[in-house]
């Protein structure tokens, strides 16, 4: 956790807050250390951007979750459109 926090320029407490808000849930090593994926680190970096702009942590996490859901919906819609137009 310390390495991830250092990479992002945040505190371990900030990363724990993101976990409590269910934005990121790191895996645990056999020694009990938290292991963050690159995707989770990107989410944490985005959360830091929003918090640095004055957004409360809980709200920042909700915004990021909604952004992620929107991106996935747009991806699915684009895939559907490609399949639909390929059949024409």
Structure description:
This protein has helices spanning 2-8, 12-20, 38-52, 57-86, and strands at residues 27-28, 34-35. With 88 residues, the protein is mostly helical. It has a single domain (3-87), classed as Multidrug-efflux Transporter Regulator, Chain: A, Domain 2 (Orthogonal Bundle). Helix 3 (38-52) packs across helix 4 (57-86). The radius of gyration is 17 Å and the shape is elongated. 14% of the residues are buried. Residues 1-66 form the HTH merR-type domain.
Relevant terms:
mainly alpha, Multidrug-efflux Transporter Regulator, Chain: A, Domain 2, two-stranded antiparallel ribbon, 2 strands, about 5% strand, elongated, MerR family transcriptional regulator, DNA binding
Show the helix and strand layout:
Elements: H1 2-8, H2 12-20, E1 27-28, E2 34-35, H3 38-52, H4 57-86
Antiparallel strand pairs: 1-2
Helix pairs in contact: 3-4
Largest sheet: 2 strands, antiparallel
Task: Write down the oligomeric state.
Answer: single chain
| CATH fold-level assignment | Multidrug-efflux Transporter Regulator, Chain: A, Domain 2
Q: How helical, in percent, are the residues?
A: 55-70%
Cα separation of the termini: 52 Å
Number of strands: 2
H/E element sequence: HHEEHH
Could you say how many structural domains there are in total? 1
CATH class descriptor name: Mainly Alpha
CATH architecture annotation: Orthogonal Bundle
Radius of gyration: 17 Å
Strand fraction equals under 5%
* SS summary, helix count: 4
**How confident is the prediction overall: mean pLDDT?**
95
User: Which spans of ≥5 residues are poorly predicted at pLDDT below 50?
Assistant: none
Structural class by SSE content: mainly alpha
Q: Name the shape in a single word.
A: elongated
Domain HTH merR-type: 1-66
InterPro entries: DNA-bd_dom_put_sf, MerR-type_HTH_dom
Protein name: MerR family transcriptional regulator
GO molecular function, one term: DNA binding
């Amino acid at each position: 956790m310390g390495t991830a926090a250092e990479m992002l320029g945040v505190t371990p407490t900030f990363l724990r807050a993101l976990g409590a808000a269910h934005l990121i849930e790191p895996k645990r090593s056999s020694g009990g250390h938290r292991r963050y994926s690159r995707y989770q680190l990107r989410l944490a970096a985005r959360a830091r951007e929003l918090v640095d702009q004055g957004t409360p942590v809980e709200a920042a996490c909700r915004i990021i979750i909604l952004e992620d859901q929107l991106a996935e919906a747009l991806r699915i819609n684009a895939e559907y459109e490609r399949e639909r137009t390929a059949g024409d």
